[in-house]
Amino acid sequence: MSEPIEPSTSSSSTKDPASLIHPRREPFEHGLLSIPKLIFADPTQTLVPLKHKLIEQSPSTHRVNAAAISESLQISIDLARLVLDSLASVLHLESDPLVQAKPDGVDEVGADVHDLVLFLYIQSYKKLLPRTHKDSAAVADVWPSTSAFDGYLSALSPLQLVRSNSRRFVPSQADEEAHQLSYLQKHLGNLVSLLAEPVEGEGEESLVLTMERLEHLGFLIQFGDKGSESGHLSQYAPFFANSDPDMPAVPVPAAQVHEWILNNIASALENISERISPKENGLPSSSDQDVPMADACTSSTKGSTCVRGSSFIEGISKSSLVRHASDLKGPSVKVLNCHDSVIYILAPLRYATVYGCSDATIVLGAVGKAVRIEHCERVHVITAANRICIANCRECMFFLGVNQRPLIVGDNHKLQVAPYNTFYSQLEEHLSEVGIDATINRWNEPLPLGAVDPHDSLSHPAGVSDAQAESAIRVDPDQFTTFLIPNWCGGEPHGSTKVNPFPLPEAYVESQDRNKNLGEVKQLLREAPLEDNRKRELSTALHVYFKDWLYASGNIRQLYCLQGE
Q: I need a labelling partner for 163 at 20 to 30 A (CA). Which of 1, 271, 323, 541 fits?
């Protein structure tokens, strides 16, 4: 008979962040895939026999490759490889062989079966719906319904966000965390049972959890606010806290682990409720305030906040913003509701999210795990990343240096992709730091998944769920140009990068060479034997066409960099 344990490792009244349990946001934000065959009506009933089958195939290592996943889940080998890549991008332990594997070695290493079943289980997660806007009629006419899916998708256009003049109806970080904790609270019994094993000779009723199996739950939950730096989950478990490192810890009843985590989740939800209550009564929270538009500028201190390891850049309008590694308080960045702006984030990152932006150019330095671009319109994104997911975007251009195929999901229209087209002095150093291989660039292999996100909480008409997302087309090489980052925001002068480290395809190299000939044309025009009045006419015509090009190409945004100079 096990001794009763305390409801929590600490009282919620202390409000010590290090003692509170949190959901790991990465699996919920970057690990959900729009693959219908991965969403089970009863995950436990499906995944328990699946786990046993996969373990039988690899009894010694408990690791499985794409072929085993493809056969077991009845999905294509490409989708099975996508499952492996996606799991690798959101795993909690950097020491896991799957995380450490090179792009061409992922399949050889394979995924741990227990991590895989947890990853597959949360594919049934439903995201928190945006709050209903108090003046829905005022925003309903802004976003034209050009798609049969528009009425059924959860997407809110950037223009709707601007017209509303508030992001209060978008779920706050506290709301989303509470929603994720509630999901874990509801499904915790099933999740624990997937990791537990029966005591030999006592049957399925006597399930126990070893310290090693408990660590797999660290994929979904963590203590403290430092993300992967918070340490192993077993360090916080009272039944494993004093274990002799030289001796294997004695397994504990699964019910005891279940009760301990449930009590900690209850304390965390109570803490979140206390933080949210003042806002519901009209009192702003310091961690959830909007950034006034007037404060958006090139300053390194304005326009952003930091919450639990993520830096937030919000509400920038008709301005430019520069962030270096020294300006960021964590390894993740979220760019939210920015419009008519140029934003440079020249730093090594783990995760990056761009949400609800329009008419903006956003440069993301080197992102080692995953980038997600969602609900954006007429945005140019330039990024070097391990992987990128594009969801519910319109008329956007992506200049990519990516080691994995770009994912296209949801209701997208007129997307374009092109090879990476810029550099800054520390780029190669940042690529090396986060593990991106500049010799591999799969920018031109977009992988479209479902046109409807099965993880939203909306109902969809029959047949729509089976539709495939509209893919992206390649930018014409003749329209491809190098994006120059101004010297004053390019980073520290000791950086070694002098050129774009991602090799360009031949067609784009030839286009670049043709553009270099423009200098010769400029010299010929300057030396042309024209009368003064004809030179003035030519100059006026060139200025008119140049201005038209600035607006048509979106490069007018780069002039915002000169504001405040």
A: 323
